[in-house]
Design a protein that fits this description.
By secondary structure, the protein is α/β, with parallel strands linked by helices. It has four domains: 215 residues, HAD superfamily/HAD-like (Rossmann fold, 3-Layer(aba) Sandwich); 91 residues, NAD(P)-binding Rossmann-like Domain (Rossmann fold, 3-Layer(aba) Sandwich), CATH 3.40.50.720; 188 residues, 3-Layer(aba) Sandwich (Rossmann fold), CATH 3.40.50.720; 79 residues, Alpha-Beta Plaits (2-Layer Sandwich). Helices cover 36% and strands 19% of the residues. A seven-stranded parallel beta sheet has the order 16-15-14-17-18-19-20, sandwiched between helices. α16 links the parallel β12 and β13. α3 packs antiparallel against α4, α5 packs across α8 and α9 packs across α10. The two termini are 32 Å apart. The mean pLDDT is 93. It binds 1,4-dihydronicotinamide adenine dinucleotide.
Length: 630
């Protein structure tokens, strides 16, 4: 009796996401007039073969006939297939390297393209059992080696019989022929691989369904006993989160569900039960009641800037990290501010409106260049600072005021007081945050201090400007023009009416809170938030988390990383280290950061641990969450 374990892996639609002959068709038929119809026919034949309606021989012969492929197409095919290796195979290269002599590729495809692909994953060419193309003298593919076992029905079974593997045999594949190996008594277990294709005829027969290779490795304890397969991480993305985000999460191997609308509290309480990662935008409230139902939740991604809709402290108490996209739309707001400063100084909006009312008013009166004008930026954060750089490059003299100490970029000049800024600026733009103290921070007293003919912008928060005072100073001509994107009260839906005392005043550009609304900003958000969440899941890094203590971690190699989240109480770090010392475990790195509510400790250890350590660490009083990376 031997304990050797062998892994039999299918190629098409398992090792790679696609059927190689379909891809070869795309390449070989590139210049063919009937390309589309031939490709469709080839795909149909592939499917008929899979469903058992054609013999393997018929399926291969008919497809090769239609393909009209040549030796010169093969390098292109190999390049294309390299890009199409299944995501979970790509991220588990270590498995292939470690078990290379025990891994066999048994496929009804062709060695000509399989070997170059799998060799990069340390699979030995002599462990690849597949068909071979036959070429004519000119290099045209005319057929295949018909003597190969794998060109006949039941070929996989016969091939495995001949291999006479002594030990446990595990088969991973997406097709019925893979299952047949098990049915013939030649394998201990058959895993239906469904990452790329799912066929009920196959999954019904399988011992297990493996939505990814991670699942297979996890079930067979081939990574570590504790590592967690990514397909078991359920992601729920609400409110039509951008498709790029959905794709990134799927590519990572998560089990992703999407829902177009927001959910109310009761619906979310129900849906969140098995969810590990929740993605929302502004309409879904993550309340304490929701969190009480969220026992598997690891992270919340706010695919927007604001996080008022999330109970951040409640999340902390549950050990749930929250991430948002704080500067994904910064540039969009800045570009809009620049365009409005120019438009207002040139009275473009007023002139355009007159034209729409058939009035021609050609005059230079009241129109100015922005070059050499003084721009006063209130709030020198992400947006204010970026605006500073762009405005300066267009020749404006930049002044800024911030309640915090901020580095002046380029030639910008810091003002010691708000008053100083108000008094000297030709254009004033607000980019402060929404803290409550900022309510009505710009009112009559502030407008009074401004220069006559100033241009004024608010693209930050609605409540920071006293709108009635703004109307007064626009009407008395002190303010020459204003751009307002945010309002104390904003309609909830596009169909709700908008009302404001600003409506109808000339040279006032009113926009419906669209400063950050661009396609680019949406795309940035869609990649930024998943990036932060995956980093947190994969490394424990909390950089840019809204609620967690921010810990940027070095990469860990040849170590296990223990991630411990606890209530911030004295002495917990000592207790963690005591447990490790008692189990004779050497710490190679340790990082701790706390805030008022939680402590976040990362410990890298350098040896195999026994499960008792984990139990002991979980038992430490005030532990909120504990997980291990390897
Ligand atoms: P940020 O947080 O990076 O910068 C805000 C800055 O304002 C900080 O430096 C802060 O110290 C300063 N500040 C706060 N109160 C102040 C005060 N009373 N006086 C002077 N400085 C003060 O924020 P970011 O990303 O630059 O955004 C700025 C504002 O723009 C935020 O209110 C944000 O909600 C809003 N925003 C609006 C968008 C739109 O669609 N119109 C899109 C994106 C952001």
């Amino acid at each position: 009796m031997t304990n050797e374990k062998y892994y039999i892996i299918d190629f098409d639609s398992t090792f790679t996401q696609v059927e190689a002959l379909d891809v070869l068709a795309e390449i070989a038929l590139q210049d063919d007039d009937q390309k589309e119809s031939k490709i469709r026919e080839i795909e149909d034949i592939t499917n008929e073969g899979m469903d058992g309606k054609l013999t393997l021989k018929e399926s291969i012969e008919r497809r090769l006939d239609l393909l009209d492929a040549h030796r010169k197409h093969l390098p292109m095919l190999v390049d294309a297939l390299k890009e199409k290796v299944s995501a979970s195979f790509r991220r588990n290269r270590d498995f292939f390297e470690k078990h290379s002599d025990k891994i066999y590729i048994i496929s009804n495809g062709f060695k000509d393209f399989i070997v170059p692909i799998v060799r990069e994953y340390h699979v030995q060419p002599e462990n690849v059992y597949a068909n071979s193309f036959v070429f004519d003298q000119g290099g045209r593919i005319t057929g295949y080696d018909e003597n190969s076992l794998l060109a006949s029905n039941n070929g996989k079974v016969e091939q495995l019989r001949q291999l006479q593997l002594e030990g446990d045999v595990y088969v991973i594949g997406d097709g019925y022929t893979d299952y047949e190996i098990k049915a013939a008594g030649l394998a201990n277990k058959f895993y239906a691989f469904t990452e790329n294709v799912e066929r009920s005829t196959v999954t019904e027969k399988a011992d297990h369904v493996a939505p990814s290779l991670d699942e297979f490795l996890y079930m067979n304890k081939l990574n570590t006993a504790i590592s967690y397969p990514k397909n078991r991480i359920s992601v729920l993305l609400l409110e039509n989160v951008h498709q790029d985000a959905v794709d990134l999460m799927k590519e990572e191997g998560y089990n992703v569900s999407v829902y177009p609308a927001g959910l109310d509290e009761d619906e979310l309480c129900e849906k969140i039960k098995d969810v590990s990662i929740l993605g929302i935008r502004s309409k879904t409230n993550v309340t304490r009641k929701v969190l009480e139902n969220a026992n598997r939740l690891i992270a919340v991604g706010a695919f927007c800037i604001g996080t008022n809709q999330i109970d951040l402290d409640g999340c902390l108490e549950k050990g749930v990290a929250v991430f948002n996209a704080p500067f994904s739309n910064t540039r969009s707001v800045v570009e809009m501010a620049i365009s409005e400063i120019i438009s207002l100084m040139r009275k473009l909006y007023e002139r355009s409106s007159a034209m729409h009312e058939t009035r021609w008013d050609k005059s230079a009166r009241g129109s100015y260049e922005i070059r050499g004008k003084k721009l006063g930026i209130i709030g020198y954060g992400n947006i204010g600072a970026q605006l500073s750089v762009l405005a300066e490059s267009m020749g404006m003299k930049v002044f800024y005021y911030d309640v915090e100490e901020k580095l002046a970029l380029g030639n910008a000049t810091k003002c010691e007081s708000l008053q100083e800024l108000l008094e000297i600026s030709d254009a004033i733009t607000l980019h402060v945050d929404g803290r409550p103290e900022n309510k009505n921070m710009i009112g009559a007293a502030e407008f009074e201090k401004m220069k006559d003919g100033v241009v004024f912008l608010n693209l930050s928060r609605g409540h920071v400007v006293d709108i009635d005072a703004l109307v007064t100073y626009l009407e008395n001509g002190k303010i020459a023009g204003a751009g307002v994107d945010v309002f104390p009260e904003e309609p909830k839906k596009n169909s709700d009416p908008f009302e404001s005392p600003l409506c109808g005043i000339p040279n006032v550009i009113l926009t419906p809170h669209i400063g950050g609304s661009t396609v680019e900003a949406q795309e940035n958000i869609a990649s930024f938030v998943p990036g932060k969440i995956m980093d947190y899941i994969n490394t424990g890094s909390t950089s840019n988390s809204v609620n967690f203590p921010n810990l940027v971690l070095p990469a860990f190699r040849n170590a296990h990383r223990l991630i411990h989240i606890h209530r911030n109480m004295p002495g917990i770090l000592a207790k963690i280290n005591q447990v490790l010392a008692e189990h004779d475990i050497n710490i190679v790195g340790q990082y701790l950061k706390t805030n008022e509510i939680i402590g976040y400790v990362i410990t890298d250890i350098d040896k195999e641990y026994d499960p008792d350590v984990i139990k002991a660490l979980r038992k430490i009083e005030h532990t909120i969450k504990f997980r291990i990376l390897y």
